[in-house]
Design brief:
The chain is an alpha/beta fold and 279 residues long. Helices cover 42% and strands 19% of the residues. Strand 9 and strand 10 form a beta hairpin.
Length: 279
C-alpha cells in the first residue's frame, strides 16, 4: 500500500480524532500510509476496507497498536531542564508551605513516552531538592502509547537519551548493560508508576487523582483547538488548588484557556490553578 486515497485518509483521520483528540494533517499522507500498510501486514488484512473493519470493530484489539503507530516519542533525560530547576526552587516550595513532612507530593508527567521525563524528575529531586526525603513523593508517568509504557517500565536507554546527563549521574543512577545501553537502577524504576491515559477523556484523567505539579510538555501541539481546550479543562481538574502546570517551551495556555493563572519565575513561566475562593 503506497498511498491512501482521500476518502481513506478522511476515514482514518475521523476515527483517530474521535479516539484520541489528535488530528492528522494533509502533509502527513507520506508519514501515515506506510504505517497503515505495516498494520495491515501485522493483522493479515489484504486491503484497506478489511483493515478498517478490523480496526473499528467493537472492542478491537487493533486500536492500541494503531494508536502506537502514529505517536511521536522524541525525548531524552533532563529535557527542558529549566523547568526542573523551577520545580525545585519555586514550585515545590510553594506547594509544601502548608504540607507537614510525611505528606504526599504528587507529580504527573504526560505524555511520558519511554520514561526519560518522569525518571528525570526523580533524579533531579534527589540531587537538588533538600526536602526529598521529608515527603512522600509520588511520580506518575502516563502515555496513550502502550508500547512506550512497556519500554519506560524496562528503563533501558541508549547514549542519545543520556546525552544531557554528566558521567557522575549516569554512574550513580544507571547500570551499564553493554557498550551502548544502560538500565536505570531498580530503586528509580520502582519510584515511578506508569499508566495509560487518553487525556481527552475526563474519566481517564480523573482516575489518576489530584496532583501538585503536572508536566504536560509538547502534547497540546498535536490537538486541534477544541481538543486542546478539553485537555486543558481535564488537567485543570486534575490539579490541586494552587497546583502548577508546566507546558513545552512552544506552548502557551493563555491561547487555550482562561482557567489558569500565569506565574513567572526566574527559571520558567508556568500555569497555576487558583486557590479555592479566588476567581
Amino acid at each position: 500500500m503506497s498511498e491512501l486515497t482521500e476518502d481513506q485518509f478522511r476515514l482514518l483521520w475521523e476515527y483517530f480524532y474521535r479516539e484520541t483528540g489528535m488530528a492528522f494533517t494533509e502533509g502527513r499522507h507520506a508519514y501515515i500510509a506506510p504505517r497503515v500498510a505495516e498494520r495491515m501486514r501485522a493483522t493479515g488484512r489484504q486491503n484497506f476496507a478489511a483493515y478498517f473493519a478490523c480496526l473499528t470493530a467493537h472492542a478491537s484489539a487493533e486500536l492500541a497498536p494503531f494508536i502506537n503507530a502514529f505517536t511521536v516519542n522524541e525525548t531524552y533525560f533532563y529535557r527542558e531542564e529549566y523547568q526542573l530547576r523551577c520545580l525545585t526552587t519555586d514550585l515545590l516550595r510553594h506547594r509544601t508551605e502548608a504540607k507537614p513532612p510525611g505528606e504526599s507530593v504528587r507529580l504527573w508527567s504526560l505524555p511520558c513516552s519511554t520514561g526519560e521525563e518522569p525518571y528525570s524528575l526523580a533524579i533531579f529531586l534527589l540531587e537538588n531538592w533538600s526536602y526529598a526525603d521529608d515527603y512522600n513523593i509520588e511520580i506518575i508517568g502516563s502515555d496513550i502509547d502502550t508500547a512506550v509504557l512497556a519500554a519506560a517500565a524496562a528503563g533501558i536507554y541508549g547514549k542519545r537519551a543520556l546525552m544531557r546527563l554528566d558521567s557522575g549521574l549516569v554512574e550513580k543512577y544507571f547500570e551499564q548493560l553493554d557498550e551502548d545501553n544502560w538500565r536505570i537502577i531498580q530503586d528509580l524504576r520502582d519510584s515511578v508508576l506508569f499508566t495509560s491515559i487518553n487525556a481527552v477523556e475526563p474519566a481517564e484523567v480523573r482516575r489518576h487523582g489530584s496532583f501538585d505539579v503536572i508536566f504536560c510538555r509538547n502534547m497540546l501541539i498535536y490537538f486541534d483547538e477544541i481538543s486542546r481546550r478539553t485537555v486543558a479543562e481535564n488537567l485543570y481538574e486534575a490539579l490541586l488548588p494552587g497546583g502548577y502546570l508546566c507546558l513545552g517551551h512552544a506552548e502557551s495556555m493563555s491561547r487555550i484557556s482562561g482557567l489558569f493563572e500565569i506565574c513567572r519565575y526566574d527559571d520558567a513561566i508556568v500555569y497555576r490553578r487558583p486557590l479555592e475562593g479566588k476567581p
